[in-house]
User: Fold Thioredoxin domain-containing protein from Scheffersomyces stipitis.
Amino acid sequence: MLSRVLIRSAAVRTALPRATPVFRPSIVGTRFYSFKQEDQPRIRIGSTAPNFEVNTTSGKIDFHSYIGDNWVVLFSHPADFTPVCTTELGAFSKLKPEFDKRGVKLIGLSTEGVDSHNQWIKDIEEVVTGGEKFGFPIIADSTKEVAYKYDMVTEDDFKNLESGVVFTVRSVFVIDPAKKIRLTMTYPASTGRNTAEVLRVVDALQLADKRGIATPVDWTEGQDVIIPPTVSNEAAKEKFGSFKQVKPYLRFTKLD
Assistant:
């Protein structure tokens, strides 16, 4: 758990020793966070996505309430007005109708404030979306709380969370309606993401949940899927009809 000390007045702040790091996030109610690596939540597949309340370009949100009964893709960016991020956010915004069809909400993150995000969105709409309105919120993680909870920083930047300039890495989290982490991807700051891959893995996860199958390498919608080894041949025939057995543990079938 993050330890929190409420700094209640300017007088109290003045009384603090000079060596005490203090920063003033652009959210209501100033808070001081002490970020400790040993207290950092462990984010694994199957973990409950840590909740948080934060300002975004669409207003203040409670993240679990934002998820609701939907799937969510949460992804972070090193900073506002960065070239690779500008292309990524615009591409995700253009793909938003496809995510909508799948019941998936998108939400981005950067460690700067809402005003900066809003100015950045104007650039994204100008140079990437062709004037189309940007389609989803961007989290203003100026306290770096979300970056900490979701481990979105490099080893070196972790040491600067309390007082230094921090550029979040390009993390992607696919979260299901039960608030469980289903997939994670982490890219270095220099490497742009593949939006089609994010959409592809959402399709694979949702199909696996719905039909009890697995998907092979490079699978895309409509291609053959794999019958899990835990399903017997008799059960597979009853459930899927015909299938192709390559090895006793490797069987392919086509879904209707």
